[in-house]
Automatic annotation (TrEMBL):
SUPFAM superfamilies: PUA domain-like (SSF88697)
InterPro entries (alphabetical): ASCH_domain, PUA-like_sf
Alphabetical UniProt keywords: Kinase, Transferase
Superkingdom to which the source organism belongs: Bacteria
Pfam family, one: ASCH
Protein name: Fructose-1-phosphate kinase
Organism of derivation: Brevibacillus panacihumi W25
Length: 117
């Protein structure tokens, strides 16, 4: 079950929004519209906060906690992958030695393209 909290009930951020998406291939997926969410082990953004990637603005729409065991193929598609297994293998290749534990909790940051000026 997803834990959708109001922004005032969220714990403090553990990092800054400029560190939310840094991998070049992920940035390209966001810019092309293939990636509309990212999962991190900490909370990097607040709802309504603006992420800027290569001059394009993206608004954080939702921030919530989720276990890896709750990740579905639809969630993997939000991340820019075909299915959970493809997403899992990508994450494990980025973080060698990290186990994929179904009970491990991550922070989901969902976003959409902001209005360009």
């Amino acid at each position: 079950m997803q834990n959708q909290l109001g922004s005032d009930a969220l714990p403090p951020k553990t990092c800054t929004i400029d560190r939310l998406i840094t991998v070049k291939s992920d940035i390209e997926k966001v810019l092309s519209g293939q990636k509309t969410a990212t999962r991190r082990n900490g909370r990097y953004a607040d709802v309504g906060e603006i992420m800027t990637l290569e001059g394009h603005k993206f608004v954080i729409d939702k921030v919530y906690s989720q276990s890896l065991g709750e990740v579905t193929d639809d969630h993997a598609k939000q991340e820019g992958y075909s299915n959970v297994e493809e997403y899992k293998q990508s994450i494990l290749s980025i973080h060698p030695g990290m186990p994929w534990l179904p009970q491990m909790r991550v922070w989901v940051h969902e976003f959409s393209r902001g209005k360009e000026k």
